[in-house]
Amino acid sequence: MGKRTLVRRRGRGGKQFRAVIVGKIAPAKYPNFKLEDHHIGKVVDIVHERGRDAPLAKIRFDDGRYSYVPAPDGTIVGSTIEAGTGATARAGNIMSLESIPDGTIVCNIEKNAGDGGKLIKSAGSSAVVFAHGTEGVTIKFPSGKFLTLNQKCRAMIGAIAGAGRKEKPFLKAGLRAKYMQAHGRLYPTVRGIAQAAVYHPHGGGRHQHIGRQSSVGRTTPPGRKVGNIAPRKTGRGRIKDPNQQA
């Protein structure tokens, strides 16, 4: 009979495939301030949260409220952060997109006004305020894509700290395994062609090759449904000769 393929085992939703929740501190988002208000906060600590690459800045605002946000580059304990109307476009300040000039580097951007920040929160990432228009503010992301957001959405000036995280190699498989476990990602993974035929449809044979086309139909049964699922076209694109008759 064999056993279920890896994709099907993960789809069951077992505990070994879920993200670890132990070691979490608090949701990393802006406090629920009104846009017309002006608040001043002080960074009281910089902490690490499990499963998060960027450091978190613990901020105490003037009303006694505490908030955790991804620390922008250059943040130190004791630095001051402004939020709301009247804040200047200085690194670390929290402003609405309508108040941020074009060409400014921003991070921790709200996708919907008041959600506390959903975009550009990983270590070393940043986006650029591209243009202001009647439909909203256009943001250019690191991928090169553009997105127009509500001008009332808030963002933080600067780039997220921890840009050199990927420069240090893991060196040992155990360290990578712990990292992947904290992020809820599967490790290690085995290629289908490297498995035996009873474990994966691509397995078997004296050499590591599929042995057949990897395209399968939409109605293929679950045990066989691996590879290119109902592709529109595969292989090398060929230009049809207009002089050749069909």
TrEMBL record:
GO molecular function term, any single one: structural constituent of ribosome
UniProt region (Disordered), positions on chain: 202-246
Record domain Large ribosomal subunit protein uL2 C-terminal: where: 89-222
Keyword tags: Ribonucleoprotein, Ribosomal protein, RNA-binding, rRNA-binding
Pfam families: Ribosomal_L2_C, Ribosomal_L2_N
A single BP term in Gene Ontology: cytoplasmic translation
Keyword Ribonucleoprotein: yes
UniProt-listed Gene3D superfamilies: 2.30.30.30, Nucleic acid-binding proteins (2.40.50.140), Ribosomal protein L2, domain 3 (4.10.950.10)
Domain Large ribosomal subunit protein uL2 RNA-binding stretches: 11-83
GO cellular component terms attached to this protein's record: cytosolic large ribosomal subunit
Entry keyword Isomerase: no
Subunit organization: Part of the 50S ribosomal subunit. Forms a bridge to the 30S subunit in the 70S ribosome.
Similarity-based family: Belongs to the universal ribosomal protein uL2 family.
NCBIfam families: PRK09612.1
Name of the protein: Large ribosomal subunit protein uL2
Lineage, highest ranks first: Archaea, Nitrososphaerota, Nitrososphaeria, Nitrososphaerales, Nitrososphaeraceae
